[in-house]
Amino acid sequence: MNAQEIISSGILELYCTGLTSATETAEVQQWAKQYPEVAAEIEAIQKGLEGYAQAHAITPGAAVKEKVFAEINKVTAAPVVNISSAGNGTTSKVRSISSAWKYAAAASVILLLGSLIFNYTYYKRYADTSDQLASAQKELEQQKELAQSMYNDMSVMSDMNARPVSLESMDSTKDNSARIYWMKNTGDVYIDPSNLPELPSNKQYQFWAIIEGKPVNGGIISKEIDGKTIHIQKMKAFGNAQAFAVSVEDAGPEKPVPTEVKAIGKMPTSL
């Protein structure tokens, strides 16, 4: 929130009266350091609370004062407390204050707190709405990223220069097949690893190009990057290759030669 939103929310009044939680108190103190106008508003509220009684005091007329004190004398005439003075045996009389004055003071405090609670309620609603808006914006960003990823994948597959190559599983009991897209104009290679089976954490897939009968490292195949599922992954570029393959290797750095080839596919003879 900006400074004006903080000032109008009502939380500063609650802070000055000691009604904020520990978390909210820390937030207000941080805002006061960040925004000079918030600090100034806190100081103004504190001064206002200190002078609240004086600001609302009314000097009564002589006749009113006489009536008020007459009523006080009537009410306080009965409850008298004798207090012995230490050492001399004498007593002092102390008259109690009418409960009516207590109720009037309590009513004033209740009205003030009621106003603060009203403002604070709307502040909390505003904060909740802001959280919901932030959550919706985050979800929207995720959907935009997903849509952009799908668009990029479709662009690769629909490119007029893309030549699809199917990599067939070398194990008849398991489906280790995959599909690659070789770009005729650039030599770029993309692989769709979504059909490859999951591997234990100590294993990884590695891509290879077969050039002049020898395997050439094409990079580690990742089915997930930064917590996001990969549908089309760009591998190392190859100008000429007779075939492509996928192997299973121990997790770690890229291997210079394949250990356990799982799928292989030859380039079409006519491109």
Question: Can you describe this structure?
Answer:
There is one protein chain. The strands form three sheets. An eight-stranded antiparallel β-sheet has the order 7-6-11-12-3-4-5-10. It has a two-stranded antiparallel ribbon with strand order 1-2. The longest helix has 60 residues. Helix 3 packs across helix 4. 44% of the residues lie in helices and 24% in strands. The chain starts with a helix and ends in a 5-residue tail after the last strand. With 271 residues, it is an alpha+beta fold. The protein has two domains: 111 residues; 105 residues. A hairpin with a 2-residue loop joins strand 6 and strand 7.
Short structural description:
It contains 7 helices and 12 strands. The protein is α+β, with helices and mostly antiparallel strands and 271 residues long. The longest helix has 60 residues, at 99-158.
Give the SSE layout.
Layout: H1 3-9, H2 11-16, H3 22-34, H4 36-50, H5 52-55, H6 62-76, E1 80-84, E2 91-95, H7 99-158, E3 162-169, E4 178-183, E5 189-192, E6 203-211, E7 214-221, E8 224-225, E9 228-229, E10 233-234, E11 243-250, E12 260-266
Antiparallel strand pairs: 1-2, 3-4, 3-12, 4-5, 5-10, 6-7, 6-11, 8-9, 11-12
Helix pairs in contact: 3-4
**Quaternary arrangement of the chains shown?**
single chain
Q: Poorly predicted ranges (pLDDT <50, ≥5 residues)?
A: 75-86, 91-103
Shape: rod-shaped
**Fraction of residues in helix:** 40-55%
- Return the string of H and E elements: HHHHHHEEHEEEEEEEEEE
Number of helices, where a helix is a run of at least 4 consecutive DSSP H or I residues: 7
Radius of gyration: 40 Å
Largest sheet: 8 strands, antiparallel
Strand segment count: 12
Strand order of the largest sheet: 7-6-11-12-3-4-5-10
Category from helices, strands and their pairing: alpha+beta
Q: How big a fraction of the residues is strand?
A: 15-25%
CA-CA gap between termini:
60 Å
Total number of domains = 2
Mean pLDDT score: 75
